[in-house]
Amino acid sequence: MPETDFPLVYHYPELIPGILRRRYKRFLADIELNSGEMVTAHCPNTGPMTGVCELGAPVMLSKSDDPKRKLAYTWEMIQLQTPEPTWVGVNTALPNRVIKAMLLAKQIPELADHYDTVRPEVRYGIDNKSRIDFLLTKPGRSPFYVEVKNTTWTKGEMALFPDTETTRGQKHLQELKDLLPDAQAVMLYFINRADCNRFAPGDSKDPKYGKLFRQAIAAGVKILPCRFAVNPAGIRYLGLAPWEVAEAPSFL
Protein backbone atom coordinates (compact mmCIF):
# COMPACT_ATOMS: atom_id res chain seq x y z
CA MET A 1 0.00 0.00 0.00
CA PRO A 2 1.43 3.47 -0.89
CA GLU A 3 2.49 5.58 2.10
CA THR A 4 0.04 8.28 1.07
CA ASP A 5 -2.83 5.87 1.84
CA PHE A 6 -1.91 5.97 5.53
CA PRO A 7 -3.13 8.75 7.84
CA LEU A 8 -1.03 11.88 8.28
CA VAL A 9 -0.69 12.29 12.05
CA TYR A 10 1.60 15.32 12.13
CA HIS A 11 2.11 18.31 9.83
CA TYR A 12 5.54 19.94 9.82
CA PRO A 13 5.83 23.71 9.58
CA GLU A 14 7.59 24.99 6.49
CA LEU A 15 11.05 23.41 6.56
CA ILE A 16 14.38 24.67 5.24
CA PRO A 17 16.65 22.31 3.27
CA GLY A 18 20.39 22.02 3.81
CA ILE A 19 23.36 19.67 4.04
CA LEU A 20 24.81 18.26 7.25
CA ARG A 21 28.44 19.37 7.60
CA ARG A 22 29.18 18.68 11.27
CA ARG A 23 27.54 17.44 14.45
CA TYR A 24 29.30 18.14 17.76
CA LYS A 25 28.84 18.66 21.51
CA ARG A 26 25.71 16.45 21.20
CA PHE A 27 23.39 19.44 20.88
CA LEU A 28 24.89 21.25 17.87
CA ALA A 29 24.96 20.68 14.11
CA ASP A 30 26.48 22.85 11.39
CA ILE A 31 24.21 22.93 8.34
CA GLU A 32 24.97 24.43 4.93
CA LEU A 33 21.79 25.95 3.50
CA ASN A 34 21.04 25.87 -0.22
CA SER A 35 22.06 29.53 -0.35
CA GLY A 36 25.56 28.55 0.79
CA GLU A 37 25.07 30.12 4.23
CA MET A 38 26.35 28.03 7.15
CA VAL A 39 24.10 27.96 10.23
CA THR A 40 24.31 26.18 13.58
CA ALA A 41 21.16 24.25 14.44
CA HIS A 42 19.98 22.68 17.68
CA CYS A 43 20.25 18.87 17.57
CA PRO A 44 17.41 17.50 19.72
CA ASN A 45 18.84 13.95 19.66
CA THR A 46 21.62 13.86 22.26
CA GLY A 47 22.42 10.16 21.74
CA PRO A 48 25.01 8.66 19.39
CA MET A 49 22.54 8.65 16.44
CA THR A 50 24.06 5.38 15.28
CA GLY A 51 23.78 5.03 11.51
CA VAL A 52 21.78 8.23 11.01
CA CYS A 53 24.39 10.97 11.30
CA GLU A 54 25.93 10.97 7.83
CA LEU A 55 27.96 14.04 6.94
CA GLY A 56 27.03 15.40 3.52
CA ALA A 57 23.47 14.06 3.69
CA PRO A 58 20.43 16.25 2.97
CA VAL A 59 18.63 17.54 6.07
CA MET A 60 15.59 19.65 6.89
CA LEU A 61 15.45 22.40 9.52
CA SER A 62 12.64 24.28 11.19
CA LYS A 63 13.14 27.91 12.21
CA SER A 64 11.74 29.65 15.27
CA ASP A 65 10.89 33.34 15.38
CA ASP A 66 11.31 33.40 19.17
CA PRO A 67 13.99 36.08 19.88
CA LYS A 68 14.79 34.44 23.22
CA ARG A 69 16.07 31.27 21.60
CA LYS A 70 19.84 30.94 21.41
CA LEU A 71 19.59 28.88 18.21
CA ALA A 72 16.81 29.73 15.78
CA TYR A 73 17.15 26.52 13.76
CA THR A 74 16.21 22.98 14.82
CA TRP A 75 17.39 19.91 12.94
CA GLU A 76 14.23 17.91 12.12
CA MET A 77 15.23 15.09 9.75
CA ILE A 78 17.97 13.62 7.58
CA GLN A 79 17.75 11.76 4.27
CA LEU A 80 19.71 8.50 4.03
CA GLN A 81 20.35 6.21 1.06
CA THR A 82 19.37 2.80 2.52
CA PRO A 83 19.36 1.77 -0.40
CA GLU A 84 16.43 3.97 -1.43
CA PRO A 85 16.29 7.60 -0.20
CA THR A 86 14.61 7.58 3.22
CA TRP A 87 13.86 10.46 5.56
CA VAL A 88 14.63 9.73 9.22
CA GLY A 89 13.25 11.85 12.06
CA VAL A 90 15.90 13.48 14.24
CA ASN A 91 13.80 15.62 16.58
CA THR A 92 13.32 13.39 19.63
CA ALA A 93 10.83 15.85 21.12
CA LEU A 94 8.30 14.98 18.42
CA PRO A 95 7.42 11.33 19.17
CA ASN A 96 5.66 12.13 22.44
CA ARG A 97 3.77 15.00 20.82
CA VAL A 98 2.68 12.74 17.96
CA ILE A 99 1.69 9.87 20.25
CA LYS A 100 -0.30 12.21 22.49
CA ALA A 101 -2.27 13.50 19.50
CA MET A 102 -2.84 9.94 18.29
CA LEU A 103 -4.03 8.79 21.71
CA LEU A 104 -6.46 11.70 21.97
CA ALA A 105 -7.78 10.85 18.48
CA LYS A 106 -7.94 7.09 19.27
CA GLN A 107 -5.60 6.35 16.34
CA ILE A 108 -3.73 3.41 17.93
CA PRO A 109 -6.23 0.54 17.56
CA GLU A 110 -4.51 -1.75 20.08
CA LEU A 111 -5.16 0.82 22.82
CA ALA A 112 -8.23 2.71 21.66
CA ASP A 113 -10.90 0.74 23.55
CA HIS A 114 -9.07 0.73 26.87
CA TYR A 115 -9.18 4.37 28.00
CA ASP A 116 -11.25 7.54 28.20
CA THR A 117 -8.59 9.81 29.70
CA VAL A 118 -5.01 10.55 28.59
CA ARG A 119 -2.63 12.03 31.17
CA PRO A 120 0.99 12.81 30.26
CA GLU A 121 4.01 12.82 32.58
CA VAL A 122 2.39 11.13 35.57
CA ARG A 123 4.60 10.23 38.53
CA TYR A 124 4.96 6.54 39.35
CA GLY A 125 7.52 3.95 40.42
CA ILE A 126 9.43 3.67 43.67
CA ASP A 127 8.83 6.81 45.78
CA ASN A 128 7.04 8.38 42.77
CA LYS A 129 10.37 9.59 41.41
CA SER A 130 9.77 8.48 37.80
CA ARG A 131 7.31 9.87 35.25
CA ILE A 132 5.44 7.71 32.77
CA ASP A 133 4.97 9.26 29.33
CA PHE A 134 1.22 8.54 29.29
CA LEU A 135 -1.29 7.14 31.77
CA LEU A 136 -4.50 5.92 30.13
CA THR A 137 -7.53 5.37 32.35
CA LYS A 138 -11.15 4.26 32.05
CA PRO A 139 -13.64 3.59 34.86
CA GLY A 140 -13.80 -0.09 35.69
CA ARG A 141 -10.63 -0.92 33.71
CA SER A 142 -7.02 -1.42 34.70
CA PRO A 143 -4.92 1.68 33.95
CA PHE A 144 -2.48 1.54 31.04
CA TYR A 145 1.02 2.93 31.58
CA VAL A 146 2.68 3.78 28.24
CA GLU A 147 6.37 4.57 27.79
CA VAL A 148 7.58 5.89 24.40
CA LYS A 149 11.04 5.28 22.90
CA ASN A 150 12.31 6.97 19.73
CA THR A 151 13.89 4.36 17.44
CA THR A 152 16.13 5.10 14.43
CA TRP A 153 18.94 2.50 14.45
CA THR A 154 18.56 -0.26 11.88
CA LYS A 155 20.21 -3.35 10.45
CA GLY A 156 18.71 -3.87 7.02
CA GLU A 157 14.95 -3.70 7.44
CA MET A 158 15.14 -4.40 11.18
CA ALA A 159 14.62 -1.49 13.59
CA LEU A 160 16.60 -1.87 16.81
CA PHE A 161 16.49 -0.22 20.23
CA PRO A 162 18.63 0.93 21.92
CA ASP A 163 21.60 2.10 19.83
CA THR A 164 23.80 2.47 22.91
CA GLU A 165 23.85 1.34 26.52
CA THR A 166 20.95 2.99 28.34
CA THR A 167 20.63 2.66 32.10
CA ARG A 168 17.58 4.91 31.88
CA GLY A 169 15.93 2.55 29.39
CA GLN A 170 16.79 -0.44 31.56
CA LYS A 171 15.16 1.30 34.53
CA HIS A 172 12.00 1.99 32.52
CA LEU A 173 11.62 -1.68 31.58
CA GLN A 174 12.02 -2.74 35.22
CA GLU A 175 9.53 -0.12 36.41
CA LEU A 176 6.96 -1.19 33.82
CA LYS A 177 7.36 -4.81 34.91
CA ASP A 178 6.89 -3.77 38.54
CA LEU A 179 3.46 -2.28 37.70
CA LEU A 180 2.09 -5.74 36.95
CA PRO A 181 -0.41 -7.24 37.67
CA ASP A 182 -2.24 -4.22 39.12
CA ALA A 183 -1.98 -2.30 35.84
CA GLN A 184 -1.26 -2.80 32.15
CA ALA A 185 2.24 -1.77 31.04
CA VAL A 186 3.11 -0.84 27.45
CA MET A 187 6.47 -0.06 25.84
CA LEU A 188 5.85 1.82 22.58
CA TYR A 189 8.75 2.08 20.12
CA PHE A 190 8.36 5.02 17.75
CA ILE A 191 10.15 3.77 14.59
CA ASN A 192 11.03 7.13 13.07
CA ARG A 193 11.61 5.95 9.48
CA ALA A 194 9.61 4.03 6.87
CA ASP A 195 12.24 1.55 5.65
CA CYS A 196 11.90 -0.90 8.59
CA ASN A 197 9.29 -3.63 8.70
CA ARG A 198 10.47 -5.55 11.79
CA PHE A 199 11.68 -4.74 15.30
CA ALA A 200 14.04 -6.35 17.82
CA PRO A 201 15.99 -5.26 20.90
CA GLY A 202 19.49 -3.90 20.22
CA ASP A 203 21.29 -6.69 22.05
CA SER A 204 24.71 -5.92 20.57
CA LYS A 205 24.66 -2.37 21.96
CA ASP A 206 23.07 -3.13 25.33
CA PRO A 207 22.84 -6.83 26.25
CA LYS A 208 21.33 -6.00 29.64
CA TYR A 209 18.50 -4.09 27.97
CA GLY A 210 17.84 -7.09 25.74
CA LYS A 211 17.70 -9.38 28.76
CA LEU A 212 15.32 -7.03 30.61
CA PHE A 213 13.23 -6.69 27.43
CA ARG A 214 12.65 -10.44 27.34
CA GLN A 215 11.98 -10.60 31.06
CA ALA A 216 9.44 -7.79 30.76
CA ILE A 217 7.62 -9.57 27.93
CA ALA A 218 7.54 -12.82 29.90
CA ALA A 219 6.06 -10.92 32.85
CA GLY A 220 3.30 -9.40 30.71
CA VAL A 221 4.60 -6.02 29.51
CA LYS A 222 3.06 -5.28 26.10
CA ILE A 223 5.25 -4.21 23.15
CA LEU A 224 4.06 -1.81 20.43
CA PRO A 225 6.65 -1.19 17.67
CA CYS A 226 4.89 1.60 15.75
CA ARG A 227 6.09 2.34 12.21
CA PHE A 228 6.10 5.90 10.88
CA ALA A 229 6.93 7.43 7.50
CA VAL A 230 8.68 10.80 7.71
CA ASN A 231 8.95 13.40 4.97
CA PRO A 232 9.10 17.22 4.84
CA ALA A 233 5.30 17.44 4.67
CA GLY A 234 4.60 15.42 7.78
CA ILE A 235 4.51 12.06 9.55
CA ARG A 236 2.27 9.13 8.60
CA TYR A 237 1.41 6.16 10.79
CA LEU A 238 2.04 2.84 9.01
CA GLY A 239 0.86 0.47 11.74
CA LEU A 240 2.74 -2.06 13.86
CA ALA A 241 5.94 -3.87 12.94
CA PRO A 242 6.25 -7.52 14.00
CA TRP A 243 8.92 -8.03 16.60
CA GLU A 244 11.31 -10.89 16.88
CA VAL A 245 11.57 -12.58 20.25
CA ALA A 246 10.93 -16.29 20.63
CA GLU A 247 7.47 -17.28 21.85
CA ALA A 248 6.11 -13.72 21.76
CA PRO A 249 2.70 -13.45 23.45
CA SER A 250 -0.27 -11.83 21.74
CA PHE A 251 -0.79 -8.14 22.52
CA LEU A 252 -4.02 -8.11 24.53
- Helix tally equals 4
**Which class best fits the helix and strand makeup?**
alpha+beta
Largest sheet: 7 strands, mixed
Total strand segments = 16
Radius of gyration over all CA atoms, rounded: 18 Å
Q: Outline, from the CA principal axes?
A: globular
Determine the fraction of residues in helical runs and give it as a percent range: 10-25%
Write down the secondary-structure element order: EEEEEEEHHEEEEEHEEHEE
Overview of this protein structure:
The protein is built from four helices and 16 strands. The protein is globular. The protein is α+β, with helices and mostly antiparallel strands and 252 residues long. Mean pLDDT is 94; it is low at 246-252.
Name some characteristics of this structure.
252 residues; alpha+beta; five-stranded mixed barrel
Short description:
The protein has 252 residues and is an alpha+beta fold. The chain is 16% helix and 41% strand.
Write the layout of secondary structure elements.
Blueprint (H helix, E strand, L loop, with lengths): L7 E4 L4 E9 L3 E6 L4 E5 L15 E6 L9 E9 L3 E5 L4 H11 L4 H4 L4 E8 L5 E8 L6 E8 L1 E3 L2 E4 L5 H13 L4 E8 L6 E4 L5 H13 L2 E10 L2 E7 L12
Parallel strand pairs: 4-6, 10-13, 12-14, 13-15
Antiparallel strand pairs: 1-16, 2-3, 2-5, 3-4, 5-6, 6-7, 8-9, 9-10, 11-12, 15-16
